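Here we describe the complex-level prediction in full. Unlike the single-chain runs in Section 2.1, the two entities below were treated as one system.
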Amino acid sequence: MSGGAAGAPKPLPSSGPKSLREMPHPLATSSSEEMGPALTPSPDLLQPRSIADKDLSLPNGTPVDTSSPASSSSLLNRLQLDDDLDGETRDLFVTVDDPKKHVCTMETYITYRVTTKTTRAEFDLPEYSVRRRYQDFDWLRNKLEESQPTHLIPPLPEKFVVKGVVDRFSEEFVETRRKALDKFLKRITDHPVLSFNEHFNVFLTAKDLNTYKKQGMALLSKMGESVKYVTGGYKLRSRPLEFAAIGEYLDTFSLKLGTIDRIAQRIIKEQLEYLVELREYGPVYSTWGGLEVELAEPLEGVSACIGNCCTALEELSEDMTEDFLPVLREYILYSDSMKNVLKKRDQVQAEYEAKLEAVALKKEDRPKVPTDVEKCQDRVECFNADLKADMERWQNNKRQDFRQLLMGMADKNIQYYEKCLTAWESIIPLLQDKPETK
Amino acid sequence: MESAEAETSDSRSEEDGAVPGSGFPPPEQPVAAAATMEDCLAKKMEITISEAEKRTGRNAVNMQETYTAYLIETRAVESQSEGQCAPVDSLWRRYSEFELLRNYLSVTYPHIVVPPLPEKRADFVWHKLSADNMDPDFVERRRIGLENFLLRVASHPVLCQDKIFYSFLTQESGWKEMVNETGFQLKADSRLKALNATFRVKNPDKRFTELKHYSDELQSVISHLLRVRARVADRLYGVYKVHGNYGRVFSEWSAIEKEMGDGLQSAGHHMDVYAASIDDILEEEEHYADQLKEYLFYAEALRAVCRKHELMQYDLEMAAQDLTSKKQQCEELATGTVRTFSLKGMTSKLFGQETPEQREAKIKVLEEQIQEGEEQLKSKNLEGRDFVKSAWADIERFKEQKNHDLKEALISYAVMQISMCKKGIQVWTNAKECFSKM
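The structure predicted for the assembly as a whole is:
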């Protein structure tokens, strides 16, 4: 497998049809025709083949177009599977676990074990286990972004950590990061296009990722150019309504999530301060118990009960810190990734519009629209289709994730109150236990 | 206990006697045992403070002042004829009159742990409550506290029979003059004397020393407890109120969501409910704080009894010392020997011996004084024993009351916590229900 510029599209044609090959799922094919028009614009259904044929001749050599047919059509597939058959067609399972600290003379870092189990033909073995560090994940994400610019690439947890504020090697930090990395790979694994990406395959299987990384350097510089070329100077006339809506949605969404993140952090802070007071409060009853004879036991009971409530509260804040906040953060980053893809889409459209304008100026040549412009139009349409599909996937994931996240938050709070309730109920008999009741 | 009561009533026999007023039959004999729980005033009369009113008036130096007056309502309870209702008597008293009453009681009954008044100024309160004297919440809580004080006195076996107390309840005008006529202020111990006693008592009663120590510690532990509880309440308030922000942001967020919208919106409503629920919870908890506060002040009352015992002991020791020195003088004169070097011895040596007649006369005077002193000592001893007996009886009564009350207070506190937990579980279960529909 070579990562050279010329070779880049080579593995991808196989990945495109591959996911198409998944389509002959009895349920998928039969119902896709009924659902099709409602879910995706009909051109998308027609386009795949024609574009797949054309894409090899695209000047940029980017796999942009190659991937689009797979994504837009297998989206249909997925959408139906999501409801009933989720999981059944899964043939790739990736987990991140077992973080290990490496101390070298130069640096100290953490590696995570990435285990892959698969039945896919792209993999030589059914099972792989490699160790990767954060840098490698970062490399993978960059590669994905380069090679699949029309797709929404899931975010990595933030790289930047304020030194001193967070201990990078603390158990909690490593565990939080491990979960986020695991989520990152799972999101790629679940993606009908990204999961077939060559770099992803290498990331999961290569014994020595570094040699592969070096090979890729040449490609990187070329890709950089192509991105620049796209970016250069075109202004978008008007964003299509639906993408403008997505943009607006993302702005509000990330704003609201930011607020929720701040509220959640504030709650955790308030809870910790409450905990500090509560920890002082309980022992006062104990001290008092030491002064009393008949009241000693009830007062000790109250003290122990408050102690139990402290433990429950501590667990609640920990759960919120470790499970709730990271998911919020992921979605904040996720919406940033989404915004990036939107921007790229705008650029592609701008390029197309500019070319169209140029053609319009030379009205004499009207009957013959240059192929170059046609290709550009195709690119825009593919991009739109990919983006819409990803956005829909994302919306769907988001709904499920937040449903789970918020239900989890409610559950954790219910559990907290239940623990306190049990503690307080258990001391009632202790308080009532008095023989000389009048 | 009975014997102690007999002695106490004996000592204040001149105060017994016919008490004016309808529903209150006078004690049958002056020497009768103090009221048992069944025939104390509280059982014969319903006492309530039904109203508090802000008033403006002129004080002794003709300055404008604002104060709160409390309406005391009393009604005789006729145990025989249940159908009939005795008319309600009512009169207004202000806080300073309650203070006067309590001063009178504690001076007149030094061996009794006199129930304390509620605080003059709000203290140890959770921040949201105002510390203003005229604050309606504070006035209301003080009304309850004052009513409680009256009921405590009315159900105290000894105090309930006090004439001044009875007229406090039933006789609006001239009451102050009546109190002052008792001359109780003359009996009040000066601070200096009390301080002296504390440092100079040679043979303190171990039981009272321990009790004093206990009341010191009780006071410090309860005030610590109240302080921490107020902080705990503050923090808890914060935790709940920050959740209210979820209410707003969920509702704003729901506006941009399709499927998730309804669930978020209604979950936001539950978060509002959650945030609002803390006000009632903490207001209810203030009642618990008031119960603890009563015992904080009771600790002071307990210490007052110890101090009075110290004073008595001090008097006794002083009398005994005086007697010893007189006896010694007398012996010296009789035998003509000066055992210890004294100024008297020196003068007699310098200015020559007294005549036998002079000496005889002196001895005679001294002997008279000694006899007087011995009788005094005897009576002081007797008085002291009586004091200890009756004080101890009341302390035992107090301890029983305290154990009972505090257990009740702890139970009601636990019940409050239980209801708070149940409310929490309810709200979060409702919220979870909404989240699950997303």
